[in-house]
């Protein structure tokens, strides 16, 4: 009896200590998630009470040409940006894993761009990509090439943003670097003794050993690029030119806070959540054959 | 507001301003701006909830025309179709709200 009482007291104390976190998750996570699901079935403009419209918001989305346009833009940007960022980050990490002089300085230099605030980064790249006075086109002019209108031509807006995303791959690079330093030197030495070259060692030892980290970067990177917002919002107001840089989250934000269609925006948010869950599930399923976990059977 | 417009040397959005505003204004031609704002051909932005969406759709239409993706006639026809359905839906929901007393 006394043991049960003691356990109850212990449980109560445990809940009491955990209560700030439990309250936090209830107020700032569970309630907004539940409310957004409810509002996705409502006509809601914040200023007036919500009115239930059933599945109308979802039906409207299915027939909304802008919704399909922003979804396609986001997917194209993800396809352009994610693989290039991952490859550049991995390449830099491999270079920085070598023992060369002033290594900490190089590591700092390559990591620094990822610390630059997004708005400052957007303004900086607006100057770089300026078609008349930007660095890119000035350099191209010197070699006799007339550079395109990077920010005004719909064909170039998404590649420009993908290049910018590459510039901020420092976080990914640090994670790769940490995993590369965990690759056992004995495996690499044994392969070298057996006559394996640098490429063979990378392909058959290094890459399989860091495959869980590549997978982690793929998932977090995918979620990040699908939610791209700040840089295009600052660089391309209203997704100009001709909505070529209008992304999913930008349209969602506009619906919520510009058009006051909060219910519609909530429906978009839920579609995005479900799409990301499906894509993550597919990636996890496909990766089971290619990701090597050392401790796993 | 009057003082702010005076200091920024621009026209006032107020219906009435003091004589002092006209006397000391930095722009000697400020009366022209006032006359233009009061002119019979002046168009104001409609005070309706769907206007921001309409405005953005218009901007996109101008973009498409200037990029020569579509002809002005086709672009305006597309705009008419898109915005008419949105306006109908918007009005239907307003009507439904009125009916439910929300």
Shape of chain B: flat
Radius of gyration of chain B: 20 Å
Helix content of chain A: over 70%
Give the beta-strand count of chain A.
2
CATH topology tier name of chain A = MetI-like fold
As a percent range, the share of helical residues of chain B equals 55-70%
What would you call the quaternary organization?
Answer: heterodimer
Average predicted local confidence, pLDDT of chain B = 91
The interface involving the most residues is between:
A-B, 19 and 18 residues
* Total number of beta strands of chain B: 0
Q: How many strands, which pairing sense, and closed or not: the largest β-sheet of chain A?
A: 2 strands, antiparallel
- Main sheet of chain B? none
Shape of chain A: globular
In CATH, the architecture of chain A is Orthogonal Bundle
- Proportion of β residues of chain A? under 5%
* H/E element order of chain A: HEEHHHHHHHHHHHHH
The strand order across the widest sheet of chain A is 1-2
Write out the CATH superfamily name of chain A.
MetI-like
Q: What does this protein look like?
A:
The complex is a heterodimer of chains A (297) and B (102). Chain A is mostly helical. Chain A is built from 14 helices and two strands, in the order H-E-E-H-H-H-H-H-H-H-H-H-H-H-H-H. In chain A, a hairpin with a 7-residue loop joins strand 1 (42-43) and strand 2. In chain A, helix 1 (2-39) crosses helix 14 (262-287) and helix 3 runs antiparallel to helix 11. Chain A is globular and about 70 Å long. Chain A starts with a helix and ends in a 10-residue tail after the last helix. Chain B is mainly α. Chain B folds into two domains: 2-38, no CATH class; 51-100. Chain B has five helices and no strands. The A-B interface holds A 43, 45, 48-49, 51, 53, 60, 65, 154, 238-243, 254, 258-260 and B 49-50, 52-53, 56, 59-60, 63-64, 67, 69, 82, 89, 93, 96-97, 100, 102.
């Amino acid at each position: 009896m006394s043991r049960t009482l003691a356990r109850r007291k212990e449980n109560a104390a445990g809940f009491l200590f955990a209560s700030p976190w439990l309250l936090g998750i209830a107020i700032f996570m569970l309630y907004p998630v539940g409310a957004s699901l409810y509002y996705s079935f409502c006509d809601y403009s914040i200023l007036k009470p919500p009115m239930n419209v059933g599945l109308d918001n979802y039906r409207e989305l299915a027939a909304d040409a802008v919704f399909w346009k922003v979804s396609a833009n986001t997917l194209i940007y993800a396809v352009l940006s994610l693989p290039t960022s991952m490859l550049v980050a991995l390449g830099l990490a491999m270079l920085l894993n070598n023992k060369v002089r002033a290594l900490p300085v190089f590591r700092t230099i390559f990591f620094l761009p990822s610390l630059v605030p997004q708005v400052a980064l957007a303004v900086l790249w607006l100057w770089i990509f300026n078609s008349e006075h930007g660095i890119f086109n000035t350099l191209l002019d010197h070699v006799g090439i007339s550079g395109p209108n990077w920010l005004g031509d719909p064909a170039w807006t998404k590649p420009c943003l993908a290049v910018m995303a590459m510039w901020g791959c420092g976080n990914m690079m640090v994670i790769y670097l940490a995993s590369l330093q965990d690759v056992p030197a004995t495996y690499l030495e044994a392969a070298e003794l057996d006559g394996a070259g640098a490429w063979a060692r990378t392909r058959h030892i290094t890459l399989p050993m860091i495959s869980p980290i590549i997978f982690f970067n793929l998932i977090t990177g995918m979620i990040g690029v699908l939610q791209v917002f700040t840089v295009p919002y600052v660089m391309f107001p209203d997704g100009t030119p001709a909505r070529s840089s209008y992304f999913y989250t930008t349209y969602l934000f506009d619906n919520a806070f510009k058009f006051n269609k909060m219910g519609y925006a909530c429906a978009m948010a839920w579609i995005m959540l479900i799409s990301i869950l499906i894509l993550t599930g597919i990636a996890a399923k496909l990766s089971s054959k290619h990701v090597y976990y050392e401790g796993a059977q | 507001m009057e003082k702010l417009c005076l200091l920024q040397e621009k026209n006032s959005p107020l219906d009435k301003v003091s004589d002092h505003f006209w006397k000391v204004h930095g722009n000697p031609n400020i009366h022209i701006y006032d006359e233009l704002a009061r002119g019979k051909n002046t168009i104001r932005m409609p005070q309706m909830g769907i206007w921001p969406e309409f405005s953005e759709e218009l901007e996109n239409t101008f973009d498409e025309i200037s990029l020569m993706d579509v002809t002005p006639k086709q672009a305006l026809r597309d705009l008419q179709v898109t915005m008419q359905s949105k306006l109908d839906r918007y009005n239907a929901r307003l009507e439904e709200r009125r009916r439910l007393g929300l």
